[in-house]
ParB/RepB/Spo0J family partition protein (Hellea balneolensis), 300 residues
Amino acid sequence: MSKKPTRGLGRGLSALMDDIAPVSPAKTNTKAQPNAGGVELIPTDKIVRNPDQPRRHFDKQKLEELTASVRDKGVLQPILVRPVQAKSGTEVYQIVAGERRWHAAMRAGIEHMPVLVRELSDREVLEIGVVENVQRADLNPLEEALAYKALIDQFGRKPGEIASAIGKSRAHVANMIRLLGLPERARTLLAEGKITAGHARAILAAPDPQSLTDAILRDALSVRAAEKWVRTALKAAQNPAQKKDKHRAIDADTRFVEKQLSDHLGLKVELNHKSPGGTLTIRYKTLDELEDLTKRLRSS
């Protein structure tokens, strides 16, 4: 028996359909209804999701829209599945690509789905899931990072191989994997789409990740503003003499706000925050500076 050749990462579904052998009817006990082009109709309740699928979050509104379309027109494009043994010992079909269509079909009450049944290894299943989802931008940044990590840890793939397969740079893959080092709260916010990958990278570089995370949410900081927050905090940390000004203990968040106000007003600003209130001191040296400040405050 000839050895099955190793397929390169990133072949995609179109290439896989050409060279991965369909499952022989003798190998399955489930009666599938064959159709043209190798497409089969399989009972929807015989199809199960892949627990290792990289994509874990589905947009509810888009899923509802797809459900309505499936209810009206049916499932127009087959999903890719592989035969597996369920815990009960019966044979079922595990989804390799097309889980969103399956969810929509279940919601729409579709009893049979068009599928392409293929014999695929665990590695091939993961690789297809990563490539297809990344190329379609279906994964959130955290899901993408976890998928890359699984390819590296479980199957020995190198970052350069992954980058080549998905059409991204090696630096992109490395930066995405770094996101797994985020504090738990920031990881949750990233998965929920409440912060971006750019925000997450800034949080990773911050000397106080929690404070920056709070500032991003509270002040709706852009990625550029978050990066500026980090630079200000790092500069203060590198110069201990700046940590105290007239015996004031200044955290990175307070110093960032002070700098923003100073840049806007063109004057030295001191913020002494003591929850729930505090004092704001604006220093001027000349009457001209005072007059200019008065005009700024009146016009704002």
Summary: Strands lie at 33-34, 40-43, 47-48, 79-85, 91-97, 112-117, 244-245, 248-249, 268-274, 277-283. Residues 13 and 128 are 7 Å apart (CA to CA).
